[in-house]
Amino acid sequence: RKMKVVVTLNLGPKVMPLLYDHPDLDIVLWPHAGSSGKQWLLDNIPGADGCIVMLFEKVDEEAAGPNLKVVSTMTVGYDHVDVKALTKRRIKLGNTPDVLTEAVADASVMLALMAGRNTKEGTDIVQQGKARTLCWSCLRRPNLQRVCSGQVGHGTLGFIGFGRIAQATLARMVGFGYTRCLYVARSKDPARAADLQQTVKGRHPSLTTVQQVELDQLARESDVLHVLAPGGPETYHIINEEFLKQMKRTAILVNTGRGTLVDSDALAKALREGWLWGAGVDVVEGEPGITADHPLVKEPRCVVIPHIGSATWESRIGMATVAAENLLAGLVGKPMTSEVQLPNVELGIAVATID
Ligand code: GLV
């Protein structure tokens, strides 16, 4: 019997042949753009041996069909996958770390600069044809207020989650002149923290401080705060009104992790009332259904981009390749390129992006 594989997105001309040309596979491919939705998955997964899914396909108890051996997600995060259900049925889970690290770190820096330097308001003003009076005559008060912002590049960088992507973001941001790095991470093991801090300081001699802290201190001291931890119930709305109220009025918040970590209404209120300077978000709770009247989209000091952190050719082809490799290895019980260690996840230790 051929093995049935359900694939919810076209992996492109480089990678699809790995599946289509495979003699032992029957491929069922979602034929449209966008997400397949749960019903299509439920209709097709019974009898399937494996599947390749994307961010918005929820693989839960119901969707994990009786013959399923492997779920391969073309993402590094896997909060859309019910790991308990998979563990119970001994279904393997593959993800795609590393190949997207550089792209997401680039996007994090881009958002920090865009938010910090008022880019959204600037492009809006140009598009509305008001730049002559509002910007290009900027030395006249009160228009100065509309164009000027603080200098990005000194003080303290904060990170929620301090895994691979956060460290790659730090490597870029130290070039701007930051000297302190504070982070919040799930692991509270002091030996491990000391080790990590030593390594990071060794890489970046210009940093005077690399320190694991509590959320309150992170909120109070960060000049640019990068959110790069996984989603899921444990990190849900970790950035809420209470957190935002403690931030510096000049601070910038960047979310390239998961939308669920940030309470959008609280962030919109914080920006409106000036509790912080600006925000840049690649991920928003409720995506992909974000429309022009979303409170964050309407905020002039909030840059919203549509989850394109990993969207470079290089990284997406890398992700598609690893997703296919994981699937093929998992189907025949060989070691995957990147397998999520499910028992660890059950104990509450996610190994993907947070340390
Ligand atoms: C994207 O958000 C991913 O988890 O890869």
UniProtKB/TrEMBL annotation:
Protein name: D-isomer specific 2-hydroxyacid dehydrogenase NAD-binding domain-containing protein
Keywords: Oxidoreductase
GO cellular component terms given for this protein: cytosol
Domain D-isomer specific 2-hydroxyacid dehydrogenase catalytic positions: 6-340
Lineage: Eukaryota, Fungi, Dikarya, Basidiomycota, Agaricomycotina
Keyword Oxidoreductase included in the entry's annotation: yes
Domain D-isomer specific 2-hydroxyacid dehydrogenase NAD-binding: 109-309
Family: Belongs to the D-isomer specific 2-hydroxyacid dehydrogenase family.
Domain of life of the source: Eukaryota
Parent sequence residues shown: 6 to 360 of 429
GO MF terms held by the record: glyoxylate reductase (NADPH) activity; hydrolase activity; hydroxypyruvate reductase [NAD(P)H] activity; NAD binding
